Amino acid sequence: VDGTTCSILTYLSQIEDFCPPRLKRNHSSHHDCTQAEVRTSLSHLYEVFSNNSGPAIRFIRSRVERMSSWWIQAGLWMRQSSNKTVLTQMRVLHTVTSKSMVERGGPLGELVQWADLSACLTILGHNNIHSVLHETLVKLMYVCCDWSSLIGAAPGRGSCPIQRPLTFDLIYTDYHGLAHLQGAMGLAFQHYQCRFRILDSFGTEPAFNLGSYARSRGFKTLWGSWGLQPLQYLTMFPHTPDNSFLGFVSEETVREELREEELEPDTYKKDRIAVVYGKEEYMWQGKSEYVGVIHEELETHATVYQPAERASSLPSFIRNHGLESESLLLSQLFVGLGFPYEGPAPIEAIALGCVFLQPRFDPPHSSDNNNFYKGKPTTRQISSQNPYAEEFIGKPYVWTVDMTNSTDVREAVKAILNTEPFTPREFTCEGMLERVHGYITHQNFCSKSVPAWPPQRALRIHLGPLGQSCVSVCRRSSLVCEPSFFHHLNSPAAFTSMVQEVNHLFPAYSPWGQHCGLQQEPLLFSCAGSDPSHRRLCPCRAHLPGQVALCPDCL
């Protein structure tokens, strides 16, 4: 036995007689250190899709095929760019458990992420396997013992040991898939959980992630309490620095069509049309006056799913196209109704040259006053329908207004003129490839050592005022909070006195008690969280233009 998977399996089957004989099987082939070479074809992914069916996989494949030329161009760019570390080819499992209403138009945000993640990993040279059914997942997970020899015994029972070697280097899943994995893996779940990456649209803050702390401090919810490293959770927008921002890619349909048709710039004119963002009728309730003000200035359209047997409850002046409309292509304004929260559609609209008009929330929406966020593992205060669009893009592409103030809404609509298409770099194929490559290269949650990425030279230390989170403290200086740097602040060198206490706000300084508190539980290092009695010591860093997840020294 030399420490390799192959030698261990051989010993257990041939010497100890603990596992069935490994006849003509090479279960360690994925550990042969093949280099991951950037691909300029998605054929490997199409072969994976051919073995799966169902509306979710059909949606994912359709999106990948529609965007394939952009991914291929991004792969060519990736090949030509310098300073890209060569990685060992990884075997990656995707457990797609989303039950999105594909035929009804939403919610599709999670499937957009699954599609773009699949394409991204394929272009980066890794091998993907998609699993939708729990039964398929169980069969895929382990290779040590021959299942037929167990005579139908469930995983973890019979003569086969529970800690079987895992055949995947990375496992991307969501909260539902995580529960399935725990049931399938038994006691091995804890041993291999460092390989999990959780697609988590709204994020999981550290205070909710550590089960014992969540139960004792009132942060217990139906989600969270898995005890993972907070950076293992992957969000749709960079709203929670404690988690990793995965994102998605915005489809720049108009820009591509203009190139193909070779239109002159002066011929590119937007019609006086507003498209309302809301594909279900319940989202329109109580919004008639708000939409009516917009209709005074612009012809107003919608893409609402309506069964043929049910009469419409939309305002009579709305022109509804159903789910098949492409009215965004020539529309001038994309109108948010306040829900759904933080979806991909506003970014897509801005990329098509629309201006996004959205409601401001006063007071902000949170788990304290909003049923949607109630029970979610976050304390964020949502100031608008899409805070990322408000904070990171802003005017002239994004206008945030008081929906109940007709004058405010009317003036905003009149001020909006034709706007050129705009896409932040982090929502392009190149930006997502760059970001995911950085994560795969540098994020190692199986190691017990202090994170070495981002490099410490990027650290900027800020002591915030009373009652502010590190997210706010860093943002005031046009920086972002970097949770990987908390280790560098959590020492006597940073504070001259300390209190041995577990608190997700530490490291922090309390002027009332005139003491400094250090963090005793690394899983509670958190950019989120604030308290009127604490001044938080915050690890901040700069970021690349349009790429908030990466610092200038991170590539």
UniProtKB/TrEMBL annotation:
Topology versus the membrane: Single-pass type II membrane protein
Question: Which one Pfam family would you cite for this protein?
Answer: Glyco_transf_18
Its pathway, per UniProt, is: Protein modification; protein glycosylation
**Cellular compartment(s):** Golgi apparatus membrane
User: What is the designated name of this protein?
Assistant: alpha-1,6-mannosyl-glycoprotein 6-beta-N-acetylglucosaminyltransferase
> Which GO-annotated molecular functions does the record name?
alpha-1,6-mannosylglycoprotein 6-beta-N-acetylglucosaminyltransferase activity
Q: Which UniProt keywords apply?
A: Glycoprotein, Glycosyltransferase, Golgi apparatus, Membrane, Signal-anchor, Transferase, Transmembrane, Transmembrane helix
> Has UniProt tagged this entry with the keyword DNA repair?
no
GO terms for biological process? protein N-linked glycosylation
Give the record's family classification: Belongs to the glycosyltransferase 18 family.
> What EC number(s) does its UniProt record assign?
2.4.1.155
Q: What class of enzyme is it?
A: transferase
Q: Which organism is it from?
A: Mastacembelus armatus
Reaction it catalyzes: N(4)-{beta-D-GlcNAc-(1->2)-[beta-D-GlcNAc-(1->4)]-alpha-D-Man-(1->3)-[beta-D-GlcNAc-(1->2)-alpha-D-Man-(1->6)]-beta-D-Man-(1->4)-beta-D-GlcNAc-(1->4)-beta-D-GlcNAc}-L-asparaginyl-[protein] + UDP-N-acetyl-alpha-D-glucosamine = N(4)-{beta-D-GlcNAc-(1->2)-[beta-D-GlcNAc-(1->4)]-alpha-D-Man-(1->3)-[beta-D-GlcNAc-(1->2)-[beta-D-GlcNAc-(1->6)]-alpha-D-Man-(1->6)]-beta-D-Man-(1->4)-beta-D-GlcNAc-(1->4)-beta-D-GlcNAc}-L-asparaginyl-[protein] + UDP + H(+)
Q: Name one GO cellular component term.
A: Golgi membrane
Q: What positions does the domain Glycosyltransferase family 18 catalytic occupy?
A: 1-540
